[in-house]
Write a structure and sequence with these properties.
Elements lengths: L1 E2 L21 E5 L2 E9 L7 E10 L4 E6 L9 E2 L7 H13 L1 E18 L6 E13 L10 E6 L14 H10 L4
Parallel strand pairs: 1-2, 4-8
Antiparallel strand pairs: 2-3, 3-7, 4-5, 4-6, 5-9, 7-8
Length: 180
């Protein structure tokens, strides 16, 4: 099992080896200890569906990021509503959070997190990760996100805020998306 990096969360300053299929990474989050792993798109891992997130790309090579403080930029995504499919969740969340329409999407893989200690011990959550070609609409935030930022896609490591322990997962997702 790989331990999470010793650095604090934030912007990446160096390349991290991408997570391998099924490789377990120990992290601490939400007051508990979690084991997180990357899973290929070919097989949905067991667990509770916890939504979708998208590496959203504009036609001119921009990467769409969202945030609430203009410092910590993340990928659009969120939890499913009712009986939404993984892809339906992606489409809705990208529209709500980034004011963008998904034109085409390709499933990159899944992350599976199992809480092994703490207040959520036993909880197993699965999230889908996508590469999405998007069309931007006029920025009119109506939900929980205050800001949208479009940066050159290949510069993602210096713009994307990564929570402690998740660097290998992000490197794998961006590798699968063809951006590494």
């Amino acid at each position: 099992m790989r331990a999470g990096p010793k650095k604090c969360e934030g912007i990446l300053t160096e390349r991290v080896p991408p997570a391998r299929d099924g490789e377990e990474i120990a992290i601490r989050a939400s007051g508990g200890d979690w084991i997180v792993a990357w899973h290929p798109a070919s097989a949905v891992p067991e667990g509770t569906p916890h939504g979708a997130a998208g590496i959203c790309l504009t036609p001119d090579g921009g990467l769409v990021l969202i945030g609430n403080d203009r410092k910590r930029w993340g990928l659009p995504g969120g939890r499913p509503e009712k009986q939404e499919s993984w892809e339906q969740t992606l489409h809705r969340e990208v529209l709500e959070e980034a004011c963008a329409t998904v034109i085409q999407a390709r499933l990159l893989g899944f992350t599976r997190g199992k809480c092994v200690s703490g207040p959520e011990a036993g909880l197993v959550l699965v999230r889908s990760l996508w590469r999405a070609e998007v069309e931007l609409a006029v920025w009119k935030p109506q939900f929980e996100i205050a800001y949208r930022n479009v940066v050159p896609a290949k510069t993602w490591p210096v713009h994307l805020w990564i929570e402690h322990g998740f660097a290998a997962i992000y490197w794998r997702a961006f590798t699968e998306a063809g951006l590494v």
